[in-house]
Design brief:
CATH architecture of chain A: Alpha-Beta Barrel
Number of strands of chain A: 12
Structural class of chain B: mainly alpha
Helix content of chain B: 40-55%
Distance between the termini of chain B: 61 Å
Distance between the termini of chain A: 43 Å
Shape of chain A: globular
CATH superfamily of chain A: Divalent-metal-dependent TIM barrel enzymes
Shape of chain B: elongated
Largest sheet of chain A: 8 strands, parallel, barrel
Order of helices and strands of chain A: EHEHEHEEEHEHEHHEEEHEH
Oligomer: heterodimer
Number of helices of chain A: 9
CATH topology of chain A: TIM Barrel
Largest interface: A-B, 54 and 50 residues
CATH architecture of the largest domain in chain B: Alpha-Beta Complex
Chain lengths: ~290, ~260
């Protein structure tokens, strides 16, 4: 905990509305404008420092918005030991922030203690399923709460995978009693890169498992072998992703939805405007984002 | 079929070393060959870590230019592992790396500028400390003063250079439009970096004060630190320096030698 003055926070529930990320570039604008959004999502790893402006702003944010803590560094799927030092910091952060949700990715990002700062894909096998399931159980046990797990964007798959991703993440959620953070942009990106049907993916996920949705912009890399979509989080959400989102909201109901925008950031006002497009679909799932 | 552990070992090896073929990691080749698919991850890793370094070292980047910065970052990432999921801890060795890099030896001050930028980043995320009052110090028996060990505020760093790095740093802020001519022979800098109201403040201080604070930071007693101050400048004013840095919250506590 950064300093002794911080009290444990009580949790504000997240309404079924859109939210935005808490980004350093927006700190001043956020405090000044206090936009009306359903929640703020916080990258846990950006707030593990002991003090300073990030902590001051996060304290303010927790008093003004419902929050979710979203992790990118837990490396749930690694065959290394779990990073208990990191988990301890996360538990302390959860203690004083009081987030409604705590989420992580279904991936691995470290090996032999070396971190790659990227979300690396797992083979979808029974072995990996059992491995990650046990990790999620340990993490939930240690944190004393349920977590959400998120599907990543993939650029490759492994020869020996035996399960489609939608079965893998659904089975993980069922067997570890966690819930899903479904990233609709990632579903689209992976579907285009790996050649599966995004709609089949959505329609295969048990509706009660999905508690949050992510939307983001992607970029297109032209290669000699055809286009590859990159989960770049640096532009508006693409039209096909809005369409899949509409399908998802129809199936999963109105669930809190985050617009992820991490680089090439627009003004806070523009970001909120993008989030409001999601609100219109949450209110009427048949609607198409303008 | 590789085990999960073997697969991750192979994948990590291929990610870091272009010489290791991607199909060793059991990656499927279809419309794209496995090597092209793996390259996307390799690129993502280098780009994201380069961006992390660029966020920490904007002045170094401006001084060397985009291409040179990318190349220095690439070499640094190859030789310096990220050992924690906390990116704010990555890049602490960049100043040392730059000081030995032959590509940037025409900029002899570059490593010291990097050291200043790293100090700013450390200070930005450092804990907030309570402060020390002069009254607290007044309760100590004056006969014990020489043996006191003062504690520096965790949100301060001391940086020194034989080049005018503060001027170089200021001239290369993104809002700085003026053309500067900076003489490298104009003497060095003795800097105190600290956080005030969540903002970073860089202050040029007297060499003797710097040496005194450096000694305290290293755990020296007041007497030993005073010796360092006076060695740097015979006119070093201990009482004035101590008062200034207690009131200015550079010093936030003390312990007696016996404790």
């Amino acid at each position: 905990m950064p300093d002794s003055s911080k009290q444990s926070a009580s949790c504000r529930p997240i309404p079924p509305k859109s939210g935005i990320g808490l980004r350093a570039d927006h700190y001043s604008a956020l405090l000044a404008e206090q936009p009306s959004v359903g929640f703020l999502e916080v990258h846990s790893e950006n707030f593990l420092g002991a003090g300073g402006r990030p902590i001051t702003v996060l304290e303010w944010a927790r008093d003004h918005y419902p929050l979710s803590l979203h992790g990118v560094g837990l490396s749930l799927g690694t065959t290394d030991r779990l990073n208990w030092d990191h988990l301890q910091k996360l538990r302390s952060l959860i203690g004083w922030v009081g987030p409604a949700y705590v989420s992580e990715h279904v991936c691995w990002s470290s090996k032999d203690g070396r971190y790659f700062n990227d979300l690396l894909p797992l083979p979808y096998t029974e072995e990996a399923l059992a491995h990650v399931r046990d990790r999620i159980l340990w993490v939930q046990d240690y944190l004393g709460r349920r977590i959400l797990i998120e599907n990543i964007a993939s650029y490759l798959e492994f020869e020996h995978s035996t399960l489609p991703e939608w079965e893998f993440i659904s089975a993980l959620a069922k067997e570890s009693d966690c819930r899903l953070l479904l990233d609709v942009n990632n579903v689209h990106v992976s579907a285009m890169n790996l050649g599966f049907d995004a709609r089949r993916y959505i329609n295969s996920i048990p509706p009660h498992l999905v508690q949050e949705i992510h939307l983001a912009g992607h970029s297109v890399n032209h290669t000699p072998w055809g286009d590859i979509l990159i989960d770049s989080h640096d532009c508006p959400v693409a039209p096909p992703v809005w369409q899949i989102y509409s399908l998802a909201v129809g199936r999963f109901g109105p669930v809190p939805t985050l617009i992820e925008w991490d680089s090439n950031l627009p003004s806070l006002g523009e970001l909120v405007h993008e989030a409001q497009k999601a609100d219109r679909i949450l209110e009427a799932p048949g609607a198409v984002a303008a | 079929m590789p085990s999960l552990r073997e697969l991750q070992q192979q994948f990590a090896a291929s990610l870091l070393d272009v010489g290791i073929p991607a199909d060793a990691a059991d990656i499927r080749s279809d419309r794209l060959p496995a090597s092209a698919r793996l390259r996307i991850y390799r690129n993502n890793m280098f780009v994201s870590l380069t961006n992390a370094l660029a966020a920490c070292y904007p002045v170094v980047r401006r001084l060397v230019g985009e291409d040179c910065f990318k190349e220095q970052a690439r070499q640094y990432i190859r030789s310096h592992e990220l050992r924690s999921p906390n990116l704010h801890q990555y890049g602490g060795g960049f100043a040392d790396f730059l000081s030995t890099s032959p590509d940037v030896r025409t900029l002899p001050y570059l490593a010291d500028v990097a050291q200043l930028e790293w100090a700013c980043q450390q200070v930005y995320h450092a804990p907030t400390a309570t402060h020390l009052s002069l009254e607290e110090l007044a309760t100590v028996d004056t006969g014990q003063y020489h043996a006191l060990r003062f504690h520096l505020n965790p949100s301060t760093r001391l940086v020194a250079s034989s080049y005018p790095i503060f001027q170089i740093w200021r001239a290369n802020q993104s809002d700085q439009q003026d053309d500067y001519t900076i003489s490298l022979d104009g003497g060095g800098d003795w800097l105190l970096v600290m956080r005030r109201d969540d903002d970073i403040e860089i202050k040029s201080i007297k060499p003797a004060d710097w040496c005194f604070l450096r000694a305290l930071a290293d755990g020296a007693t007041l007497h030993a630190a005073f010796t360092r101050g006076i060695a740097a400048d015979l006119s070093f004013d201990l009482a004035k320096c101590l008062r200034e840095h207690i009131l200015g919250r550079t010093l936030i506590g003390f312990s007696s030698a016996a404790a």
